[in-house]
Amino acid sequence: MKALVVSDTHGNFAPAVQAHSLTEPVDAVIHLGDGIEDANLLRNLMHLDVIAVSGNCDHDTSAPREMLWECEGKRILLVHGDAYGVKGGLERLKQRAEELCAHAVLFGHSHRATCITTSGILFLNPGTLTRTSANKTFATIEISEECIKAHLHDLP
Fold first, then answer.
1. Residue 37 main-chain phi, psi, to 5 deg
2. Could you tell me the domains of the chain?
3. pLDDT per position as a tens digit, 93-139
């Protein structure tokens, strides 16, 4: 299973479409909040599964703030990140991942692309595609029964 992972699009839909064109084919798109309307547009335009959680700037949405997603036998925690203080570090997020026995955590909020493994748990933040960012980034993730592989990408 291969997915495009984006976060913090903040209404900047076009770069998400461009990221999709650079990474296709993908089986799904994962949107990690602050641009939930963009996730809905992606779903309608691309006719793909779009898995989304809401962020602190998403209002009037039924999307969950946190989701434990199971794929290929792996448990993946999807959150925006603000509720776990990710701008100040990943410790609280790591504790939550351990509570849930997650293999990976996908998060946003900080607008800083990150891909690290700590205590056997993959932490992936695709960065941001917002208009004001000088460095627009996104990620891809490949999930199999054997492993989870993640890659960060700069949008040209």
1. -65, -35
2. 2-154 (3.60.21.10)
3. 999 999 999 999 999 999 999 999 999 999 999 999 988 888 999 99
